Backbone:
């Protein structure tokens, strides 16, 4: 199990960041998207090969109005 | 007369930076951006929600403005640093408005955490624009650690209370070797004008425009306030006097009375 944006998800252990973004309906080349795994920023260039281990907390973020 | 704002070597055609928070609709945001004449707008980072498929970045790109990501919502230096790195990844910019909040009720900055975050982010190669209190000493410390500008508040975020301590703001302006951007507190056009008359180099404004009854017209008003205040600063105002000084000469005054 992993935790994606605060939601527990089964069956996604070992997925790449790209696959998780696809779960959220996000294209890998989308501008204004950033991802952290257990508080570590994952560079865009690594999204297609960086796998997310069981128990990981993933934050997938995008632009929001603010400030 | 050329009078361009330059921050970290980049020329900004407008002295008004627009915060994108609080606009009810993206169309209104887009219209307000154009009306404001701004060339730079702030954006925040939040979790992707599958239900919400807005195209904020697309709208902002269509407006042709630069993005200034912020670290809004961070309460620690650590969170602000991580958020800045995420923003760099998301928006492909080294520029960041660093916001580290120390109190939920007033949303006032936490000076100690802010300074720590800024020092690290400068070391990480960011162009750091800190949202800070109107404390001249903290502003100086932020400049000393390498911030590209300082952005003191006039009053708390979204309060519309204007500039509560113009004296402190004047001290910050007087000592600063980097641009000073009034950030937070503007309620209407005269607040923006006052900031510029005091000598700020720019104004960052969100709620005063986005939550106005007519945001697009208020964007025009605050733009005019910024431009008017800047011109007044450059023009050099007259000194204040206790008593009147006639603007019409007394010489040549006719004798129309029959007294004495």
Residues:
């Amino acid at each position: 199990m992993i935790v994606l944006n605060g939601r527990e998800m089964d069956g996604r252990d070992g997925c790449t960041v790209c696959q998780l973004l696809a779960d959220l309906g996000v294209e890998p080349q989308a501008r204004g998207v950033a991802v952290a795994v257990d508080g570590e920023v994952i560079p865009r260039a690594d999204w297609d090969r960086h796998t997310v281990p069981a128990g990981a907390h993933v934050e997938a973020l995008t632009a929001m109005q603010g400030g | 007369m050329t009078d361009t704002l330059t921050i970290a070597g980049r020329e900004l055609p407008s002295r008004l930076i627009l915060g994108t928070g609080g606009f009810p609709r993206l169309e209104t945001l887009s219209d307000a951006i154009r009306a404001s004449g701004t060339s730079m707008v702030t954006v925040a980072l939040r979790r992707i929600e599958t239900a919400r498929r807005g195209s904020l970045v697309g709208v902002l790109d269509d407006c042709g403005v630069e993005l200034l990501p912020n670290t809004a919502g961070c309460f620690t230096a650590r969170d602000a640093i991580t958020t800045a790195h995420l923003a760099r990844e998301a928006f492909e910019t080294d520029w960041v408005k660093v916001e580290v909040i120390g109190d939920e009720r007033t949303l006032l900055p936490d000076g100690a955490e802010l300074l720590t975050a800024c020092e690290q982010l400068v070391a990480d190669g960011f162009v750091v624009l800190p949202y800070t209190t109107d404390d001249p000493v903290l502003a100086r410390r932020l400049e000393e650690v390498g911030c590209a500008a300082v952005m003191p508040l006039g009053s708390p975020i979204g309060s519309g209370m204007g500039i509560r301590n113009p004296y402190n703001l004047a001290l910050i302006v007087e000592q600063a070797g980097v641009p000073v951007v009034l950030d937070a507190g503007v309620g209407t056009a005269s607040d923006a004008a006052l900031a510029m008359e005091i000598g700020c180099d720019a104004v960052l404004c969100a709620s005063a425009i986005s939550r106005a009854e007519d945001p697009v017209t208020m964007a025009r008003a605050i733009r005019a306030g910024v431009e008017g205040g800047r011109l007044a600063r450059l023009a050099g105002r007259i000194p204040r006097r206790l008593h009147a000084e006639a603007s019409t000469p007394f010489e040549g005054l006719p004798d129309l009375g029959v007294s004495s």
